[in-house]
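Appendix B, record 7
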Amino acid sequence: MSEEGDCPICHLKALMPIQVQCCRQSFCFLCLKGCCLLSNFKCPMCRGVIDPVIINRATQEINPLAIIDPEPVSNTSDSEVHFWLYEGSNGWWRYEPRVEQYMESCYCSDSEVVEVSICGYVYVVNFGSMIQYRKDLGIRKKRAMK
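Structure tokens (predicted):
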């Protein structure tokens, strides 16, 4: 890592950091998940094998107040705090704060649909229907949001 806590994939401060056993490197959970899904669970640093269990059985304890946003969105009033959640295979997950900030900004500017990159895939987020889906799979595999 170039700086303490930086993810070698996105080069930003690691969010939800996860360490792989093969080389002890730490990554953002979502960065590592995207690489694993695209590279058959090979480490992006050493090409060692990554146990799929650390990705496939991951859960997120949601304590929204414990997750600090990089910068609050200025369009909301000071007394309101908003979080974007999506339904995943293991329950409800909060969006990564940088994506969440972008989504909140788009929502506040009355955008109906936005595209975001998550785990190496482009997702379409529809605020009108409150759903998200992977762009390459289309609406047939949609997930609820709130």
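Remarks on this record: The longest helix spans residues 97-108. Residues 69 and 118 are 17 Å apart (CA to CA).
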